[in-house]
Amino acid sequence: MPSPDVFIVQQKLWRQAREGEYYPRRAPLLAAEVLSPANRLKNVKVKTELYLESGSLAVWNVRLRQREVTVHVQDRQVFTRQTGQTIQLPAEFGSVEIAIDDFFRLS
Asked: What is the reported pTM?
C-alpha cells in the first residue's frame, strides 16, 4: 500500500504501527495527495483507485496552484471544491465540515 501525503487511520491501527515502527499496512480511512508538477496524473489516478478499492472512505487530491480539492468517495462520486467552499467529511467522522480556505492558509 503506498503512503499518501496525509492520512487518517483508526487509532488502534496507528498505535500498532507506531509500536512496530512501520506505516499502517491497511488503507487509510481518508487519504490526501498533494499534487505537484512532479506528480503524474496517471500515478495519482492509480493511487486514488487503490485507496478506494482497499477500503478508504475518501481520497482528496489537493491542487495547491489551483487552490482546489477534488474529492473521490466510495460510491465513485467525484466532486471538486474551491476556495470559499467546504468539504463534508464522510459520515463515519461525524458531521464535520472543513473550509477549503483552511487548506491553503500557509501556502
From this structure: 0.84
